[in-house]
Amino acid sequence: MGYKHSIEEILDIGYDVLRKNGYHNVGVNQILKEAGIPKGSFYNFFESKEDFAIKVVNRYGESNAKWMEVFFENPQLSPMESLKSFYKFMIDTNEKDEFLSGCIVNNMSIEIGRISDTMATSANEQFLSWLDILASVVQKGQELKEITTKFTALEIAEYLHAGFYGTFSRMKVTRNRKYMDIWYKLSFEFIKA
Amino acid sequence: MGYKHSIEEILDIGYDVLRKNGYHNVGVNQILKEAGIPKGSFYNFFESKEDFAIKVVNRYGESNAKWMEVFFENPQLSPMESLKSFYKFMIDTNEKDEFLSGCIVNNMSIEIGRISDTMATSANEQFLSWLDILASVVQKGQELKEITTKFTALEIAEYLHAGFYGTFSRMKVTRNRKYMDIWYKLSFEFIKA
DNA sequence: ATCAAATTAGACCGAACAGTCTATTTTTAA
DNA sequence: TTAAAAATAGACTGTTCGGTCTAATTTGAT
What we know:
The structure is a homodimer of 193-residue chains.
Chain A: H1 7-21, H2 28-35, H3 39-45, H4 49-73, H5 79-96, H6 104-112, H7 117-143, H8 153-174, H9 178-190
Chain A binds a DNA duplex (30 and 30 nucleotides) through helix 3.
């Protein structure tokens, strides 16, 4: 029947805590409290707080990539439509928690990307896996002449990713979706074939 | 002849320290050390670390706005050219410190925008002042038919700002300018009239 | 010259930090 | 059934944190 806690369960709770609070603004003790585990279990599973945060990012990154794969398999939507639907969903998701959290990989990258090479590497790997998926959708859109072929699919994916992520800082200080909606409107108009 | 230290001098050193290290990753003692001031002076000038960080952000924001005003007054460049030149300069600036720091207002927004309402308000005010300046340049470009009139000048300014800021997280984890260059190439192609 | 105000100076404080340690319990494998 | 291994449990540690406090010094105003 296994032990009381699993690494995965702790990582999932860690995802919520770290996404909301960032890295340095939350202590290991608070993570333990929210996860309901003793310190011994935490340091049995993880080498350090940094190791924990990296594993949280990797788990989220991989699970998000899988979710994206499934999302973009939807045959009811064209590539362009599915990209719009994807980002609309992302904006709506941020609205649900009142624009306070953003993306954990972005938050970790900005806060500790500079001081933790291992975090930087992990964050980059997760970004790249997402960008690959986005690029393959863009490419399909280009083949169907929905999306401009002026630039490569990966360039357009990078462009979409950058734009969306840039709205996070405005979102966090204004706490509304106005700027995300502006980005959405302009970007999808611009990448039209 | 005045006292040994001035608020402005401490804020300027604080700008470097906070931009590089973020908020929670640097202690007040380290700031004192780098600025060469005793703790008594710090807490004589500032109510708290948070108050200090907010004043750093405001000072930088205002000085950057003034710099932007001057930059965009250059009569040798057209509006579109000056926008491109501005962002090229920004990318080059980040390259100079090895892509490790980014923008202090972005960093503070992402890290503590959620937990400090006053920081969020200040960051937003600075962003807005920059966006106003960008929007006025965009508008001139629209009047000269250099820039698309499909969207308002402020929308295009928000769009440029978001895109550029989004490249910071990729920059911080890859430590190169590739993604900033992609964003630059696509964005300025897209906003052409 | 005098005095109040501002600045300088750094020792000091309780709280919180990440991480260690030992003991105990539970599970798995032999 | 038993021994090893893994997980649970939380008290404890040394360090660093933001912030306070008192005293000395410097400055500007009168």
